[in-house]
Design goal:
The chain is of the alpha+beta class. It is built from four helices and three strands. About 15% of the residues are buried.
Length: about 110
């Protein structure tokens, strides 16, 4: 169960990470990166960000590139939320495949 503080930080980090990826995705035409969910650990030291990509075929390679640049992304995040958080949490990125799952279920139901 998450505390109210964790929920507020989840929303803040999701919003800021979305804006960071929006600015970075301008350099990669034809790709849309969405931050689906952010979950912060109870000690606020680790944030797990779940990302979905469009088109999904490039998802795994984009996730690998994002994981390689996690320190730079954390630095950019720190510049944005440095006044609101005492410590910027470590970032862990995961692929959110829930949209693929929903699409698969819809295709199965149509048949």
């Amino acid at each position: 169960m998450e505390t109210t503080r964790q929920e507020k930080i989840n929303r803040l980090l999701q919003k800021e990470l979305s804006e960071i990826f929006l600015l970075d995705a301008k350099h990669i035409p034809g790709v849309l990166i969405t931050v689906s969910t952010v979950r912060v650990s109870p000690d606020l030291g680790l944030a797990k960000a779940y990302l979905s990509f469009f088109p999904t075929a490039k998802g795994q390679e984009l996730l690998t590139a994002i994981k390689a640049n996690a320190k730079t992304i954390r630095y950019d995040l720190g510049k944005r939320v440095g006044k609101q958080l005492r410590v910027v949490p470590e970032l862990a990125f995961y692929l959110d495949d829930s949209l693929d799952y929903v699409e698969n279920i819809n295709n199965l139901l149509k048949d």
